[in-house]
Queue: 2 jobs
Job 1
Amino acid sequence: MDFSYKQLKKKSVPYVLLIPSMLFVIGVLGYGVIYGVVISLFEVNVYSLETPFVGLKNYIYIFQDPTFLNSLYKSLIFVFMSVVVGIILSLVFAIALYKLTIMKSFFKGLTLIPYLISGIAAATMFKFLFAGDVGMVNQFLSVFGMEEVLWLADEWLALFVIILANIWFVTPFAILILLAGLQGIDEQIFEAAKIDGASKLRIVFQIIIPLISSMIGVSLIWLSFASFNMFDIILPLTGGGPGRSTEVLAVYLYKLAFNDLNYSMASAVMIVIMTLNLAVSFVYLKVFKV
Amino acid sequence: MKRNLIVLFSIFAALMLVIGCSQEDTSTSNTTDDNTSNTDETETTNDEQTEEVEEIELTLWFGREDFIPDDAFEQFEAENPNIKITTDVIPLENATEEFIRASKADNQPDIVQVPSDRTKILAEQQLLLDMTDHLAQWKQENSDSYDAMVPLAWDMASNEGTPYGVTVHAGPFWYVYNKNLFEEAGYSEAPKTWDEVLEIGEAISDGENIGFSVIGSRAHDPVWFLSTFMSMGGQFEDGVPQLNSDAGEYILNFYQQLAGKDITDKNAIAWEADNMRAAFITGEAGQAMIGDNIFPTIQEAMSYNEDWGASPPPVRPGGESDAAYMALGWPYLVSNKTEHPEAVLKALQYLSSTEIVKDVALRYQPTTNVEVLSHPEYLEAKPWAADFEEAFAQLVELPSHERQSNIYEVLLDAMQEAIQNPDSDAKEMAEKYQEQIDQIVQ
């Protein structure tokens, strides 16, 4: 009896230690999410004083609204490109950092800089880079006699620019996650592979990737989550335009909530974004066995 | 154990003694202070009156720091020693939402400043105080200061005839042009119609210079677009712009021509206010529609009437009789939960007083106070002001609807489509977007 009590006590310690953080998360996030779910079922906006229960009407409306469907479509492109390019770059940079022998800490710190800069500052920087004829990229192209490219005035190029900015912004954290995974691999495995004559590509695909698959899963969750929720770079960089070409779901949500003051509709969009995040995370958790 | 209990009890008793003594000290101290204060005040007033004066604290939310009076209410507080003003800056862009949220939490300010097109939303949410009686009191007690405000000052702070405050500052958009570029292109006078604007713009645009600088992005509410629309004779029904009209088709066609004939910059669809203004201020653009508050910045780069000129917006041929000069305003609105409407009225009167308004108008936005507009100091600091005195008297507010922000989104769609598709049929475009607007407001 005494033995099982001790065992129970020992096993319960981690759960007890988790309680404060769980309470904090539930208190801050849980309330917001539950309240969001509730008001998405009502009609809460500034156009009327009544707040009638409307059930799923808000969800039905947004899924029939071309503006929302456009945002969903643009979000899927934005997230897919950000995640695919982001994870490849993260892996490449993580391996490069892992291989460094001199000034490793300096370069690790350098990698984190984009992540530490605010979204507004990053947006301003990308604006300087891609603004019309005075942007640095066009200035550079003009040196080679190339025509000015309308980066932010063309619908697809603007989407390309925000994807690029997003990758620049969210990839550093994914790099650190993968680097942590790489540093956990026993170096003797690499030595043994080299002795057995394995090529570098084979080491990457057959040793590194399988051994850090759980870290890749975590990185993918981060990249997807950060990309689905990204709006602080897009809003100041393109405002969702030209047209509505860069109005991803998070930007659409922001406009609904803070311009239109249509809280219930914005909550419905928030639930959609959260569902997408959860679904994608669930897939990663299953595939990569995180 | 027993010893420990005795020690604990002793500490507890000592603590209680200290607390008791300190409370006695405080009350003694307060009494002393009161006595001192009463002794002092007998020189000017009696004790009874002093006790009757209620200490009032008013909270004011300004939409920009620039709107706060230079003296930060120092003079006001000296004149009204029982009223303390606390100011906070809640950006105009967020003020409506923040005020609604704060009101629901009973934490609202007494006075809030919002863009005038948001007055309707707050009024219909029943968050504002009907100031009819208080304004009547103002007019009765201080008619000079009341009459110094143009009617627009009250209109912009009203909804369906009920006043909720006062608009002290309002900014119109005027047509500006670069005289040097005009001369190079063979023109000497400001255009009278928007057709002439296009003609001159085409003559100025040569790859190096821009004929007409315009905001094409979604970064701002389409107030420049609407200002142009109203100068073209654009009409509104219940605050809803009528795009499927002659003026509606004309303005879409105007934007199409700007883009199609390369009169504006190729990147105009991504241009924000800063880009549009910078193009004019740096002398790259020949024409633009720019807010009066930016004129001092232009003046720093160029000299008025020598290098640049300005006039009320041109008109649309055939739309002369309906043309209007639109102004945006930033009214001070009174919360219906304020406990001190009398003190609020005093604060509004102070904010509207000529001396206070003059300081703000000299360094920031124009005003609805006519005494300031004709003040020698103002006219000297703003050499263009005299040319706009008549136009100022004709300013009208931007009509608004409770679904204003949704309407704005559709207008931005229409404007951007016009820029992106210069060859499309403007009439069809106007019909399409009017249908969308009508669906929103039905």
Job 2
Amino acid sequence: MVKVLEIILDHNKVWFGLIFIGSVLNAIVQKINILNGAPYLTAICFFAGFVVGVIAHIRGKWLWV
Amino acid sequence: MNLNSNVSEEFSFEKEKAVARKYAQRFQWEMILIGIGQACVWLSLWPLVMNEIIPLWSGFIIASFCACMSYLPSHEAQHGNYSRGNPKKKWIDRFVGSFTLITLIYPYEILRVTHMKHHAYTNHEDKDPDFITSNANSVKEVILCSLDGTSTDYAKYKDIYADDAAFQKAFDKGVNVFLAYRLILMILVLLFPLQTLLLWWLPAKIGVLYTTLFFSYYPHIGTEVGRYKNTRFWQHWMPRYINHSMQLHFVHHLHPNIGHYDEPKAIEELKPFLIARGVPGAEDIPDRITYNPLIKI
């Protein structure tokens, strides 16, 4: 259990990207009328968040400090 | 360390401490009011926004203001300035210190122990947990560190202070709270994404940036290691209430037990002591501290 938790926490940026950024992107695109009806919109948003998280995980930080 | 070398008996450390002690007695009810008040206002924003009583954008502005107000009451708690050494009142430190930080999404125990180390090792590159921001090269660097999360990433100090059992215990307790905050944040963002972004996450970032800039960066720019050298008096165009009177942060580093709202009076009385010590900028402290600027231009 501790091991699983450690693995999850080691990838905290990936989770944050997937869940937090993905959710926010999804909520924003739902408000944009011209995107209504576009296929796989939710999946694309969560995937974009996931990619941002993976990049931050590889770089070790979110921004260019 | 001899704190009385090169200083006349009139301005000895013991006499300086006696003056400071006079301003370290009062119960700081106004700070408790600010801490609990801002957290309650912030909590009330959720039902107000959810029920469309107020729009999300105004909730965001109020939440950001609350986040900027949230650190100082916790900071006083970190120094035990509510309990004042009374074990029966320790719960006030813990309660106010933790509750006010809800807005900043940060655990009290981690901030408390790292802040104590900041006081003990101010400007020591390896040991001062705030070194990265208090010795940043520019405001831009502070902004990036705050938004990036680097300014509050104290994980490496758990290794640095591995031999300090009290530090480790408090840090571990704080990590549990941190994980709980993260879990709540993730659940909330799935349920209410834009509200979580604009009522909690972004205001917390703004609050951390404000706190880092005015509590850490400005008071320590260009300062050195040493009791009378590690903080400075500084000027700012803002009325001092807007930056939490952090131009007076110098006296806080000398005597952290002085209540925040009693610092102006303490500085007026301590001015001759600071001049005798050769503190940079001490001659420019007005005899009576009222509004901005605190330091004569």
